[in-house]
Design a protein that fits this description.
The complex is a heterodimer.
Chain A: H1 2-19, H2 23-34, E1 39-44, E2 54-59, E3 65-66, H3 69-74, E4 82-88, E5 91-96, E6 101-106, E7 112-117, E8 119-120, E9 123-124, E10 127-133, E11 136-141, E12 145-150, E13 155-161, E14 166-172, E15 175-180, E16 192-197, E17 202-208, E18 213-218, E19 224-228, E20 238-243, E21 248-256, E22 259-263, E23 266-273, E24 278-285, E25 290-293, E26 305-311, E27 316-321, E28 328-335, E29 340-348, E30 350-356
Antiparallel strand pairs in A: 1-2, 1-30, 2-3, 4-5, 5-6, 6-7, 8-9, 10-11, 11-12, 12-13, 14-15, 15-16, 16-17, 18-19, 19-20, 20-21, 22-23, 23-24, 24-25, 26-27, 27-28, 28-29
Chain B: H1 2-21, E1 49-53, H2 54-60, H3 65-69, E2 75-79, E3 87-91, E4 99-103, E5 106-108, E6 126-132, E7 150-156, E8 166-175, E9 179-189, E10 193-204, E11 208-214, E12 217-223, E13 228-241, E14 245-260, E15 273-290, E16 293-310, E17 320-339, E18 343-358, E19 366-380, E20 384-399, E21 408-422, E22 427-438, H4 442-446, E23 458-469, E24 472-473, E25 476-500, E26 503-528, E27 531-546, E28 565-575, E29 578-587, E30 590-591, E31 601-602, E32 605-618, E33 622-631, E34 650-659
Parallel strand pairs in B: 4-7
Antiparallel strand pairs in B: 1-6, 2-3, 4-5, 6-7, 8-9, 8-34, 9-10, 10-13, 11-12, 13-14, 14-15, 15-16, 16-17, 17-18, 18-19, 19-20, 20-21, 21-22, 22-23, 23-25, 24-25, 25-26, 26-27, 27-28, 28-29, 29-32, 30-31, 32-33, 33-34
Classes of the chains: A mainly beta, B mainly beta.
Chain lengths: 357, 660
Amino acid sequence: MRYVKLVLLVIIFVGCKKKKVSPTDDSISTVEKDRLKNGMMVLCQGLFQQNNSTISWVDFSDGVSDDLFFTNKTERLLGDTGNDLQEYGGKVYVVVNVSSTIEILDRSTGKSIKQISMMNNGIAKQPRSIIFSGSNAFISCYDGYVDVLDTATLTITKRIKVGSNPEQLAISNNKIYVTNSGGLSSPNVDSTVSVINLSSMDEVKKITVGKNPGTIVVDNQGDIYVIARGNYSSIPSRMVKINPILDQVETTFSFDASGIEKMGNRLLINYHNYSSSTSRVALFDAESETILSNSFIDLSKFTTLYGMKYRASNDKIYCFDAMGYSNTGYVRVFSSLGVYETSFHVGLNPSKIIFYE
Amino acid sequence: MINKHSLLVFLFMFFVHLLGFGQDTLKTLTEVNVTSFERLKSKRLEISSQTISREQILLSQPEDVGVILQKFSGVSLKSYGGLGGLKTISVKGLGSNHTTFLVDGFTVSNTQTGQVNLGQVQTDNVESISLSSGGSNSFLLPVSSYMNGSVVSINTFENNFSPQLFNLRFASRLGSFGEIDTYVSTKFSNKNVFFSAFGKYRQANGNYAYSLRNGKMLYEGIRKNNDLLDWYSGISSGFKFKNNSQLRLIYKTNGADQGLPGAVILYNTMANQRLSTEAHSVNIDFTHQYKSFSSRIFGIFNHDWLHYTDAYFLNNTGGISSRYTNNSAQIGASTQRLIGEQSILFGGIESRYSDLSFSTLNSAVPKRLHSFGLIGFNLNKTNWITEVQVSAQQVIEENKTGERAENRFKVNPFLAIEKKEVGTWKWKFKVWYRNSFRMPTFNELYYNSIGNVKLKPEEANQFSIGFSNQPIQKKMDVFFTLNGFANRVENQILAIPTKNLFVWSMQNIGRVTTLGFETRIDVKKQIKKNWSTELNANYTYQYSVDVSSNKSPTYLNQVAYIPRHTSIIEYSLKRKDVGLQVSSTLSSLRYSLNENIVSNQVKGFALFDASIFSKINFQNKHQFRIQFSVKNIFNLPYAYIRYFVMPGRNYLITLNYALR
């Protein structure tokens, strides 16, 4: 009798399945359903030693954020202090600093392709940022190297020695420029930018730019702009321009600057004054190299401005509000004229975005 | 500056002395039990003070004092796990720096960190531990201990007189995680003199298995770099003189070398940090009783260093190796005198000098002179006790290498009113209010880029109302107490990221209100001949919320790491010299940050421990005691601090010997 019941159950189950749409249609609809669109993936750094770095998925159709996006896709947590999120060749690369991993996801579904453990003889390399060229990804690692990752095989093929605690990377004139912060040796920080030749894949030069280099971007002319953050007190934080032909510092601008985001051929330059706890965002024209506006974005809604991202497809600026670093944050959207439009509530310490049309 | 101040302290001391000796014609007191600093007149009711005896400590075989303190109501423990690992307590929502530690009437302090690592205070030599916040059981303690939020007072075997001439104690423990301990203590004591020598050695491999939830998966790992080797030893002596006075001299030293396992970091199991410490301490006190007047002068001298290494820290000097050296010297005088039959005037002064030197360049070299003065009056009427205290503190700060913190002068009151035993049910009532503060520590003011010399003291206001009763029952002892409390902390000192996620600094940003109650019931019952049973249970409710700003997303959110509900239940059953105990520790969920959202939750837990013991007496002289304990019986994964995972089920065998 028990077997009869079982057989009956199986028949009913199989029968039900058959009533559904054909398998090919089913898989297409699943793929279509899983395909991420009209939204943004936001990397939220979390806080040190709390393993609470997350990726929030914000659906633009309803503005709702799924802060467990990564866990829902992979069934596990992202780890400690995610620091960079970039897309390349149909994949998303998440650089997780303290967990010392690179998470590689399918861009269209967000599902995990591979997790690369960034350890070197048992010592964490502590990866920070990633940039791409041809079939390679270049990953700055706090242990003083830039790792070369083959984007087809997803294996590390080379380690290029640079300065101490390399932070961000930029590519211009067939060279990679790496900001060596030396932040972990504070107050004896580094003050150089390493130049890696993309053909030889070796460091060819170190350019002295000023204490504690951080953000680095390239404008439409190929000029490189670096922020030398100083020492947060007597040495001010400055923007420095490097000539990519001569690999020399061409200009050190006299205004205060903490971070740069490229918007067309203009630069959004944010500055935070630590003694007065105030921030501002200036607009800089990279062609004429002049400040167009000293206070371009109204920051009255912000608790802690923590970076910006310009989206070319809709010509809008997405700003991060870290809410004092210990509360869940917001992405606040402004028009390219600096007018506030809306905010999305996301996870703890949002810092990077990938947009989906 | 400091010299000028010493003069002031000296003058104040002189003044207090005159005050005392000027009135020696009044009624003589009964003999003062100066060694244990028991209060002169009627013993303080236990509404605002809780005590755990040696017998109860032996039963629970705690790895350190932190575990014992957790058994008091109103206490939230913060444990980072592992033998010797960092443990601190918060009493009724006040941070750990609001609690003063006393061992045998001497304060234990550290100006660098402001707190005692309870994970390194062991219990082998402890006769009793008490926690009080609404007034102390003695007026001859260092006056600084009357000015803080609460006081933990430990009485040890070694530093006090004993009734027997020759005393010997031995204890050995064998536990999970490769733990081996040995403690030996000997004391010669007669009516007029005692000498003791003692020491303990403890080592453990320390690595333990744990499991934790990673998303939808269960992750099992081994918490490594948890090894420990620590020891303490000392010699002590005491002398009683004919004129009702007593002198004690104590030298203690301790040291440790341990791995720091750190938080579990997902996907990265690297842990290389180490800590070694060594401390030396000399304590001296002289207690004198003359007619209605008793006084005590004392000195506490400490030298300690701490060496922290992280061989694989990614800086350009190939890792971190930092050494910190602390020195402190503390002197003080406390005095009390009986006025008439019912009143006690008490007070005293104290001055504590401390300095700190860092081995690293660009570091501050801070020095502090912290002086305390207190005057109080205790009126003991037939049905009422009223106590009023006014204290003043002055802090003078120096830093040779840079900016220094501002000097401070503050006056704080304490007031308590108590209704004595009423009727056959022996009801007692008590209401008290205390205003206190704690200074920012050297680390908070000067530590590299984190320190902030602009910090103000953290202020605390405590109000408590409670009652207890001890109904007289045949063959049964019952004690019940219930206290409600309302506390507020202003200018709370918190470390927060200020420049970016990696650059933290100390700020006075918080304001916290705590409303709650604690209740305790102790029942001891003789079941039949040779059989007895005991139940101790407590429960604490703490609504401890952030009220810094009503615009903040954390306004009225429960503050980080203060659970709303905690409870301890212990039950023991004894037949002659054999017994068993089961106990459970319950804690509701906590938040790792002030924002009360699901992703910040640290799960609550219910832990169960059990032990069985047997005592054997030889010729009524040699007492052996053997105990087997199982901790975390159900092998539950839990943590006090997020990702500082605690061990699963573990075992302990203990052997104690005492020559009686």
